[in-house]
Amino acid sequence: MHFNTFALLSATAVLAAVNEPCIGSGGRAGVCLSTSSCASSGGVTTTGACPADAADIKCCTKASCENTSAGNCRWQSDCGGTSVSGQCPGPAQMKCCSSAATGFGGYKAPAFPAVGACQAVAVNGAKKVVAAWPGRVRQIYCTRDCSCPGTSDHCCGKAIDFMCSDAGGVPTMSGREIAEWVMNNRGTLNLKYVIWGQRIWNPSVDGVKAWTSWRAMEDRGDVTQNHWDHVHVSFN
């Protein structure tokens, strides 16, 4: 476990993904579940935190569990202590954490791509983000095996995926702070748009606001495609 103490994309409000993250009561890490599943696990639900989902799918959180007196339910990637299974609502990666401390990051500095296929604006932007959030980015991806312009800014080397959880496909809450920092530093980054947690922000159409008010995106089917394990940043 790693830790320390401290082209315009369309966005449509359709069903969010069950068993994927949400932010519930008190800013706690939660999981989108049916109200019955949440109740049977001893959790409480928050309405409106799973965008445009069915009426019985809500953000489920559980403030306390039995892994020490500080036990709380959160995504394992974000636990600054030991994690215990079987006490929390949602999938296996939602576990009872022994620590109340913030558990984001603790990673070694990632390698940066060379300027070439990955454009200088993306490499320079990646370095600025990592410098602002030391220990919080585990790995960096820039290009994909596709021809420019393709269907993604990765095809032209003008996008960076900042992996910020313990592994690909592992959810985290860490990306929110990074994504909002990118929004707030859009000028120095030459930002085109930023995506995290199934929401998108674009400086040409959106005002500065908290991530919870960013435009919702469609469910793409899994944690990685819905950007719950990494922050996507596209550059001009």
From TrEMBL:
InterPro entries hit by this protein: ARB_07466-like_C
Pfam families: VldE (PF26571)
UniProt keywords, alphabetically: Signal
Ranges of residues in domain ARB-07466-like C-terminal: 116-228
Residues in the signal sequence: 1-16
Protein name (record): ARB-07466-like C-terminal domain-containing protein
Organism of provenance: Corynascus novoguineensis
